[in-house]
Amino acid sequence: MKGIECNIITIFPQMFVSPLGESILKRARENGLLRVKIYDLRDYAGNKHRTTDDYPYGGGAGMVMKPEPVVRAVEEINKKSVRSKIILMSPQGKRFTQDMAKELAREERLTFICGRYEGIDERISLYFIDDEISIGDYVLTGGELPAMVVIDAVARLIPGVVGDQESVKADSFFSPMLDYPHYTRPASFREYKVPQVLLSGDHEKIRLWRKKEALKKTMEKRPDILKNADISEEDMCLLKEIKRERGY
Ligand code: SAM
């Protein structure tokens, strides 16, 4: 089956309704390219009060999510013949990148475990997951927003989800460069004009201009990316041209 299945383990299922129910992701779900299943962790609590957290051993502030409900939910998900990759959302995980999104988009089934409070009992991270992903070096209140970020980035790489796959390939980070600048009508807005070349109809000139502008932007905004990039001969010539123009 084409597309991808994303399972989400959370104590706040409602948080996913709107982000997954609008626009491109809504359409992807309607046409089956993105199949989302939400597992309410409280259904796996195994106690009358549906409690999924408890006090931390050793004392200290905050509550900790119990391991058993999470494992029960994971085992339910993995009853299927195709095993799901199990991902824990955590600020301590690998920092999420476009390359990671590309790798995840090759999977058939993904499962995102969303933590809350002080996080989830450490035994989950030690023994029950395949990957731990962070969306950046800051701490959020829960793993739901991070899971949505990852699902959105992965889903738009599934062929057919974004109408024009070429636009995905031109996006920042798809190739190591940032995206080129985009303009739309009007051609003249206050004193600001759209670059003349974009109105020329000369496709080759436009292609080269875009490439050069993407390189310029990357040089200015993210020189770190350029340092590690695998640069083509054409890019190299354009970079030399930019440096010459700037008198480097
Ligand atoms: N005590 C934890 C720590 O310092 O590593 C932070 C817990 S945080 C308040 C609660 C949950 O939010 C985490 O278990 C994780 O699922 C999620 N979370 C918070 N920040 C995140 C981030 N940057 N990336 C991914 N998940 C995050």
Write up what this structure looks like.
This protein has 2 domains: 4-155, SPOUT methyltransferase, trefoil knot domain (Alpha/beta knot, 3-Layer(aba) Sandwich), CATH 3.40.1280.10; 175-246, Orthogonal Bundle (Trp Operon Repressor, Chain A). Helix content is 35%, strand content 17%. It has helices at residues 23-30, 67-77, 98-104, 122-127, 144-155, 165-170, 203-221, 223-228, 233-245, and strands at residues 4-10, 34-40, 53-54, 64-65, 85-95, 109-113, 131-134, 188-189, 192-193. A 5-stranded parallel sheet has the order 2-1-6-5-7, with helices on both faces. A two-stranded antiparallel ribbon has the order 3-4. Helix 7 packs across helix 9. The chain starts with a strand and ends with a helix. S-adenosylmethionine is lined by residues 89-92, 114-116, 118-120, 134-136, 138-143, 146. S-adenosylmethionine binds at residues 89-92, 114-116, 118-120, 134-136, 138-143, 146.
